[in-house]
């Protein structure tokens, strides 16, 4: 049985008169995992992470980190955690090395050890060549990597990352992802809040989906996607075979594992195709190809798609993913069309 390093029971946070930001949530984070806390803006993600990092007082409930109560043992909790907020907390007038040395002084690390620690961190985040440049000359991705390094000065057992890649370009986001995975391999437990579905799917071992202060689902990404619905197989046929759809429906009628078959318009033309819904797409694809080949039906193209976390979120909340992420996806698609 896995050890739980973060334990949250019936956590609530209210603001003012009746504004409920966190609504009686409970969850566990296993030691050594990347735990994703996924939801849109205003879902209660940042409030939860600020409570767990002792930056905000909860209204009720209980939470412990490595057995330490976040209220009764605040000083000890702060010694074993790292926190990287949405806003980069570094000084633009200092160099990267000076920023990290300053963080070491806050943690009362002796100067000789601090110098060694800083060099190690600069190497880890690949900023050693820019170590003596002032931060006002850094890109957004470089600043975020330095901010991550700052959160590791204390060698934390648990690292809290609050939307660490918001506003970064795709390459900088990939760099942060790789760095987070490296840290996790070294034994650091990661608590990650994000509104990017792709990020949660790529990084998280397990995740909670939150909406309006409540947990609406919890589990491994693949489990959540499997629960939302079926895989989809889309078939394109040769344009000169006008009866291909009808013949294909007949050829597929006796196959096991197919839940639904429907006609659709595919591609940029009005060519008819078929959409097959199934719980086990990878296995059914082989059967489909064999059945169509036996019936003498030629395929132009076949595509298998599986449920996404975005579809999970839509099903659970009736909302779609963050607008910024959707715009970036559209932009990447346009760039791909141009290349």
The largest sheet is: 6 strands, mixed
Assign an overall shape.
Answer: elongated
Oligomer: single chain
**CATH third-level topology of the largest domain:** Rossmann fold
Radius of gyration: 25 Å
Residue fraction in strands:
25-35%
Number of strands: 14
CATH superfamily of the largest domain: P-loop containing nucleotide triphosphate hydrolases
Kindly report the spatial arrangement of strands forming the biggest sheet: 6-7-8-3-9-10
In the CATH scheme, the class of the largest domain would be Alpha Beta
- End-to-end Cα distance, whole Å, is 50 Å
Q: How much helix, percentage-wise, in residues?
A: 25-40%
Overall mean confidence score, pLDDT: 84
Summarize the structure in words.
The chain has 339 residues and is an alpha/beta fold. It has two domains: 4-219, Rossmann fold (3-Layer(aba) Sandwich); 230-305, Alpha-Beta Plaits (2-Layer Sandwich). It has helices spanning 45-52, 74-80, 96-106, 111-124, 140-150, 170-185, 197-203, 221-228, 244-252, 281-294, 309-317, 323-338, and strands at 4-15, 19-30, 34-38, 60-65, 68-69, 81-84, 158-162, 189-194, 206-211, 214-219, 231-237, 258-265, 272-278, 299-305. The strands form three sheets. Strands 6-7-8-3-9-10 form a six-stranded mixed sheet, sandwiched between helices. Strands 2-1-4-5 form a four-stranded antiparallel sheet, covered by helices on one side. A four-stranded antiparallel sheet has the order 12-13-11-14, covered by helices on one side.
Observed structural traits:
339 residues, alpha/beta, Rossmann fold, Alpha-Beta Plaits, 2 domains, six-stranded mixed sheet, 12 helices, 27% strand
